[in-house]
Amino acid sequence: MIKVESLEFKYEDGTKALDNINIDLNKGKTIGVIGANGSGKSTLFLNMIGILKPNKGCVKYNGSKINYNKKYLREYRRKINIVFQDPEKQLFYSNVYDDVAFPLRNLNIPEDEIKVRVEAALKKVNAYEFKDKPVHFLSYGQKKRVAMAGVLVMDSQVILLDEPTSGLDPHMTKEIKNIIKEIAMEKNIVVSSHDMDLIYDVCDYIYVLRRGQILGEGLAEEVFLKENLLEMALLEKPWLVKIHKILGTPLFKTEEQLFDYGIQKHI
Ligand SMILES: Nc1ncnc2c1ncn2[C@@H]1O[C@H](COP(=O)(O)OP(=O)(O)OP(=O)(O)O)[C@@H](O)[C@H]1O
């Protein structure tokens, strides 16, 4: 599994985007990385996947430092994969099926196996119905789901989701939330988002970033009760935590749990 140890990363213009970052993906099944704009979330993901190389410290996979030669990275990215915030960065602009099949064809996998895997990935993200459409005709939300399918098809062990719901309407946000929960049954996921309700709902362990440093970490239920930590990181509480604080109800992790509690109270 992946560990980030004492990692520092500076961009070419001298911006120190990450400083002394320590992250252990063993701490949760779905890990949240939260922080205000510019706190370093995307830079961290790019370091974890080996697109950027740290100036100090390292990223470890199964106890060994990752290597940056092409051969190693090709293998590494079969285990750990990223869905970028902007789906345009991920799609190649053929039709949806070919786009999702592309990485498998690159690995010379037989077409009948590709068909099974591509169709399964598209079904998982509810994109099967537009599998024959050209990618450039899709809506933004549809592109986001196809980009997710393109990563799911690889069968990786860890998936990094950078802002998976940015730019999506509430219905699509809910759909992505359910997809994340389903994927999390089989894989380790790391999610970065400004949507604290999403993070609180899907993540079990959270890292809080501020200006490139880890300001705090812990279980979701603990981190979101730390008022000072959230204030310093310029973050909001999830609505379920607000209700707990204001009404004194138990702290629920999902809205379904709150509704069940409400129903029982009124019976
Ligand atoms: N290519 C680059 N060159 C120089 N500085 C950069 C570059 N990309 C990002 N930065 C800087 O690195 C810091 C971290 O940026 P990053 O994009 O990782 O933050 P983020 O938490 O993902 O932000 P957001 O929530 O807005 O997506 C910021 O100060 C940003 O200005």
Automatic annotation (TrEMBL):
The keyword Endoplasmic reticulum does not apply. It is a peripheral membrane protein. CDD domains: ABC_cobalt_CbiO_domain1 (cd03225). It is found in: Cell membrane. It comes from the Bacteria. Pfam families: ABC_tran. Residues 2-236 form the ABC transporter domain. The keyword Phosphoprotein does not apply. One of its GO terms (molecular function) is ATP binding. Belongs to the ABC transporter superfamily. PANTHER family: ENERGY-COUPLING FACTOR TRANSPORTER ATP-BINDING PROTEIN ECFA1, HEAVY METAL TRANSPORTER. Probably part of an ABC transporter complex. Responsible for energy coupling to the transport system. Part of an ABC transporter complex. Responsible for energy coupling to the transport system. This is ABC transporter ATP-binding protein.
